[in-house]
Amino acid sequence: MNGRVDYRVVADGPLAPSIIDLLGNQIELLPWTVTQQGTDQPVDGVYTYGHPLLDGQMLDRMPGVRVISNYGVGIDHINLSDAAARGIPVGNTPGILDGATADMGFTLLLAAARRLVEGDRYARSAAFTRYDPGYMLGHEVHSATLGIVGMGRIGAQVARRARGFDMSVLYHNRRPKPTAEEELGARYVSFSELLNESDYVMLCVPLSEETQGLIGDPELRQMKSTAVLINIARGPILDTDALTEALRRREIAAAGLDVTDPEPLPRDHPLLELENVIIAPHLGSATVETRQHMAEISVANLLAGLRGEPLVRQVDVAP
Ligand code: NAP
Predict the structure, then answer these.
(1) Do the beta carbons of residue 76 and residue 201 sit within 8 Å?
(2) pTM for this prediction
(3) Ligand 1: does its nearest atom lie under 6 Å from the Cβ of 232?
(4) Tens of pLDDT along 55-85?
(5) How far is the CA of 284 from the centre of ligand 1 (A)?
């Protein structure tokens, strides 16, 4: 420790203590308000923690910034072309959270299929007075068909888990992925075929202009009335109003959501009234081990960028 501040970094906080520890005392953290108001102090870097929006106008208020480091893999809240136009590399944390996020996808899938949260509420209530073999029937998971939209790093981990449950796996990407067929036994199908044939549909695509609203009313109508929809990607990929209606009218059986649009939902949102939806507060990568790993990679990216070195994990920006 030399007791001297070497770099000034704007961050949306409060940051987890593990990140503060890794940053050490050579970095002075400046508040996110700097992105709106500017500052007289030089700013060397930006650290995004909880998905704050970041665009070129904000970067222009901090002309010394030479790295943006994101805590997480999803970077839809950062305008990548604005960063690239200013020569600023963006770092993220791909690959290290796939297992945890896929586990959460499967947790939601199993819980929604077997009505676990509804069952928990009932088991705690005064209404539970005797076992009844006729109540709360769910649907089979084993031997059912899972459709993965976005067979990337997380999608592949979901497919591995599905094989353990003897499921048939379909997937859809913009391009087929031969390794998914060879190593995971997954079959490439069109988006419509996936919606028509799957008992479970799991969304694992990044949020982009192309995927925003990917699942709306027409897509929900293509799904089986017994189907369960799981979203572990980003809320805006799924039209919230269309989902609420489809669940209310039982056009699909249930949904499991780790993410919503907006997030959080307004407390009086009709989706929150429904029994056939399970909602988690964006817990995909929320394990002690994965979050520690994310802290290490994101701080390593930040420090590398501040020193003018290549980032450990740098986001590719399409030209
Ligand atoms: P990835 O490895 O880049 O995989 C994304 C997959 O989506 C690729 O296979 C890609 O294949 C496909 N894809 C992209 N655009 C598509 C489109 N328009 N239509 C169909 N398929 C498309 O990403 P990842 O690391 O698995 O992460 C995926 C997303 O999960 C992240 O971007 C993030 O938003 C989200 N996430 C959420 C949590 C959470 O806490 N819930 C945690 C981590 C990540 P093609 O390029 O061939 O289309």
Answers:
(1) no
(2) 0.96
(3) yes
(4) 999 999 999 999 999 999 999 999 999 999 9
(5) 13
Output the residue whose Cα is nearest ligand 1's atom 38. Answer: 284
Sheet of strand 187-188, all strands in order from the earlier edge strand to the far edge: 187-188, 168-172, 145-149, 200-203, 228-231, 254-257, 277-279
Check if 147 has its Cβ closer than 6 Å to any atom of ligand 1. Answer: no
pLDDT score for 1: 44
* Top mutation candidate among 71, 169, 204, 219 for ligand 1, by most atoms within 8 Å of CB: 204
Ligand 1 pocket member 153 (CB < 6 A):
yes
pLDDT bracket for residue 318 (50, 70, 90): confident
The pair of three-digit structure tokens given for residue 305, joined into one six-digit string: 């960028």
Q: Is 266 exposed, middle or buried (0-12, 13-18, 19+ CB in 10 A)?
A: exposed
Using pLDDT thresholds of 50, 70 and 90, give the confidence band for residue 2.
Answer: low
96, 158, 205, best to mutate for ligand 1 pocket (most atoms within 8 Å of CB): 205
- Catalytic sites, residue numbers: 234, 263, 282
- CA 64–ligand 1 middle distance (angstroms): 31
Tell me whether strands 200-203 and 145-149 are parallel, antiparallel or unpaired: parallel
Nearest to 261 by CA among 287, 288, 243: 243
CB of 94 closer than 6 A to ligand 1?
A: yes
Q: Domains for the chain: give ranges and CATH numbers.
A: 7-96+288-306 (3.40.50.720), 98-279 (3.40.50.720)
Q: Contact at 8 Å (CB) between 35 and 61?
A: yes
Q: Residue 288 C-alpha to ligand 1 middle, in angstroms?
A: 23
Question: Are 78 and 54 in contact, with CB atoms under 8 Å apart?
Answer: yes
DSSP states of 46-87: EEESS---B-HHHHHTSTT---EEESSS--TTB-HHHHHHTT
Q: Tokens 């190593």 label which residue?
A: 183
192-202 tens-digit pLDDT: 999 999 999 99
